[in-house]
Every structure is written in C-alpha cells, then in structure tokens.
Amino acid sequence: QCPGIQPLCVDLADWDATEAAVSAAGPFELLVNNAAVALLQPFLAVTRAALERSLEVNFQAVLHVSQIVARQMIALGVPGVIVNVSSQASQRALRDHAVYCSTKSALDMLSKVMAMELGPHKIRVNTVNPTVVMTDMGRINWSDPQKSAAMINRIPLGKFAEVDDVVNSILFLLSEKSAMTTGSSLMVDGGFLVS
To answer: Which GO BP annotation is one of this protein's (predicted)?
Structure first.
C-alpha cells in the first residue's frame, strides 16, 4: 500500500545500532513510536528481566528514537510531528499489569515533556491511548473468554479496538487537521476510562 516506506529492523535496546540505523534513514517529518511489549505478571511476581525489557522497549526506545529524529528536525529547521502509542493502561490499574501500566504512564509524561520542550521548534508530540487492540499481542493476552468478557463489559461501546481504529487516530494526529494539538492523549478506548 505504501511503496515509499522502507522498514528498518533493529534491536531498540541496542542504542548504538539504533542511532546508526535511524540517523542513516532520515530526514524525518513524522514519527510514530509503536514498539511495545506486554510481559504480564502479578505485582509480587514481577521479575527483573520483565521490568528491564519493558523499560527498554516501552520507554527508553521511545525516548532515544525521538531524540534522534527531533535533533534532525531541529537541525534542518523543519516542523514535525511525533505520535507515541500509549495505552488506556497508563490511566487505569489492571491486574497483572504493574510493569506495563507503569511504563505506559511514564510514556504519557515523557510525551508531555517532549511537547513542552519541542514545541518552540514547531514539533508537536501527542499520544494515542487505545484499549485492547486485536493485534497478535492483544490476542495472546486477551484470548481467555472470561478475562476478555470482564474487560469488554467495562467498555461502553462493547468491543475491543481494531487496528484501523488506532491507525486512523494516529493519522489524525500526524495531519494538519490537528495542527493546534500537542501534549495531548487521544483515548481510543471505546469509553473504558469513563465507565
């Protein structure tokens, strides 16, 4: 569908490799940070490995890739947009999600600080915060009918999100139609957070 897109395959936990790959791929005007892991464990059973991996992917990688791209935008004097994919879990505690909820909350605050500091350079930064999305990761963590029913019952629209629901929200935030929006979190949660 998008022949101009060239994917890069890099371990985001490897800062040097990420720096080299992303720097060589620029310049950029738009960035969507969407990499994430959901290593679900009860609070009392959280392992160091799960915590470190979650922080590497869900938080540190966003910070690092955004730094690389924002520096390029500033050096070239071009306006830009960064959208970070967060989660409804940044706003509401979920059982077995201690690390995931925490990394997504940290991502929301990082995005606000980025919006404040990058705004004078004409770089907008926002998050989208979806409910469960029917991706491979979503299916793995929400395939138990009893578990998924409990979550769906808390969503006024009565369903999980589809990939297009999130993509369309991201496209809006990347577009000039949201030219005055920065530092915001766009909830794509079917009303979960108001229930």
So the answer is: xylulose metabolic process
